Amino acid sequence: MATVAEKITEIVAVCQRDLNCLTDPNRGTRKRGTDKIRKLVEEVDAEVRAHPDFVAALRRPLVALFADPTERCRENAVLLMTGISAQTASDMNISYLQ
User: What is the pTM of this model?
Assistant: First the structure.
């Protein structure tokens, strides 16, 4: 069975093309990239999604989209980061309280 780090490496490798699409000058390409990444993140199990390495791999390209001229790209980036951050924060609070 693969460790969390191995799963993260595999997932980031799978979505690397989509992460690269986030910097494309074409707004349609950026939107498709955020849509694909959103679907991938929804399919990933919570343990991987909450891992700091997974969040770090997605953070820079998604935060860069916060200033995107296309509303849908900005919205997708904010929703993705909010979802990932909320999952990470809730896992940290739960582990802290136990």
Answer: 0.80
